[in-house]
Design brief:
The complex is a heterodimer of chains A (about 290) and B (about 280).
Chain A (H helix, E strand, L loop, with lengths): L2 H9 L5 H7 L1 H23 L3 H21 L3 H19 L3 H25 L4 H9 L7 H30 L1 H6 L4 H23 L5 H4 L1 H9 L5 H21 L7 H29 L5
Helix pairs in contact in A: 3-8, 3-10, 3-12, 3-13, 4-5, 4-6, 4-7, 4-10, 5-6, 5-10, 7-10, 8-10, 12-13, 12-14, 13-14
Chain B lengths: L10 E10 L2 E11 L4 E5 L6 H8 L7 E6 L11 E4 L13 H10 L9 H14 L15 H13 L5 E5 L7 H18 L2 E5 L12 E6 L2 E5 L1 H4 L2 H8 L4 E5 L2 E5 L2 H4 L15
Helix pairs in contact in B: 2-3, 2-4, 4-5
Classes of the chains: A mainly alpha (about 290), B alpha/beta (about 280).
Amino acid sequence: MTIADGIWQQIFNFDNYGELLALVRNSLIAGVALGLVGGLVGVFVIMRDLPFAVHGISELSFAGASAALLLGVNIVAGSIVGSLIAAGAIGLLGTRARDRNSVIGIIMPFGLGLGVLFLALYKGRAANKFGLLTGQIVAVDTPQMSWLLGTSAVVLVALAVMWRPLAFASADPDVAEARGVPVRGLSFAFMIVLGLAVALSVQIVGALLVLTLVVTPAAAAARITASPVLLPTLSVVFAVASIEGGILLALGSSVPISPYVTTISFTIYLVCRLVGRSRARRWGAARAAPV
Amino acid sequence: MSDPRTDTAVISLRAAALSYGERVLWRDLDLDVRPGEFLAVLGPNGSGKTSLVRALLGGRQLSAGTLTVLGRPPRGGSRHIGYVPQQGTLSAHAMLRARDLVRFGIDGHGFGPRLRTSAVRRRVDEILASVGAAAYADVPVGLLSGGERQRVRIGQALATDPRILLCDEPLLSLDLHHQRAVTELVDARRRSHGTAVVFVTHEINPVLGLVDRVLYLARGGFRVGAPDEVLTSEALSQLYGTPVDVIRVRDRITVVGVPDEVAQPPHHPELPHGVRP
């Protein structure tokens, strides 16, 4: 067997697939919830230009999760606490885009440093440590599952209630404010919702790659539609496809889940970009004055 | 016009003043805007034109005097005020079609799921047709030209049948053809519905034939009256405190020698509106 074959075996291996599938049942269910949350939250992450904030929050979420690992308490709860601290700080300190990015740039390395410290102190299984950064699929046990699903439900209800004014405030803040939309309040509320969504995503894809669930699907959908119904729908479909596909492919392999999820997600984005480009050309051809 | 209120002012300022710290934008301003009136607000950058709009929207407190809008102190969120903001306030990342922007003007402020969707959708189609934007109703706003976007903006502002229309530099960076189209839309509206129009502009010529009165803000003071009274060498020289020439060539007006315009530093976007370093 050549070295290349050996590597291939590590990446794709479908022996005993049926038995393995039963092991990740929880993860598959959690994946649907995460896809739903990530796909919907992503729409506003793009509209409000927050991808960098997502990255910053996920590093503090990682710090929270590793602190929980060290203390032997619930990891999901730990990562939620870390997320909310980061999201709250960014929401309070960085109301203007320019301030926001420097606040994130300051918070992010601190969070990562804390996380590394907690992991270095942790004496347990190494796979647990690595999983927080790069994702894991079999780690979702039943108490964690209840946390994941409960938090997803909170995020989805919050989004359903504030979707319309949040979209107005995100796209057109001046007129929204004139029409009495609480623009600042919604901005803060969204940061909290984003914090929860990031904490959830950290559980499956790991802190380093949350963007692949919370940004890429919505960005892909935005390439091909501007419809307020189709865009979030496609974003959710892309996010669920990436995560479920990633889990199913990662199942037989010895590498973490994240490269599968990110590759599917990125491929979807590339296809959408190509489709979107030919669409934009058609708009341009049909209309006299494109920008 | 059976409504008895239509004869009284929809906007009323008494001894009004607005200042940022030490710097007085304007003071002792008495002004009544009546239904159907077209008021142009002119003045150099930093003279407080946009701040006046913000005060009318309830987003800024006067530093002195009183302001009533539709008989009460202004507050945010009135459906009786349509607002066309300065260009560039739309998020560059907004993923919206023209029709979605108009629809925000109708029900974008409400929490929870949308109700009565088919009636609202019909209304959006009517509005888009009335501003001549039906052809690009489904085009993403990012792909619209400046003139097309301004038509949609006016549709959005008129979506709730407001009694007052506030436009902040709606003609900026539009070519002559689109300037005319936008001013005609606004003018037609105030004639058909008696909507009072407050139109902030640094360029009077596109609206010169349409405006009833001009409010000229400069140097902490103001002049208000018909264009022929305000836009004269004498009136503006007095306002600026230095000789200013108003030259009329056919039906166009050119103001020469305005000190602020000469020494104007480039616009600083990070400063609050209306403040200069």
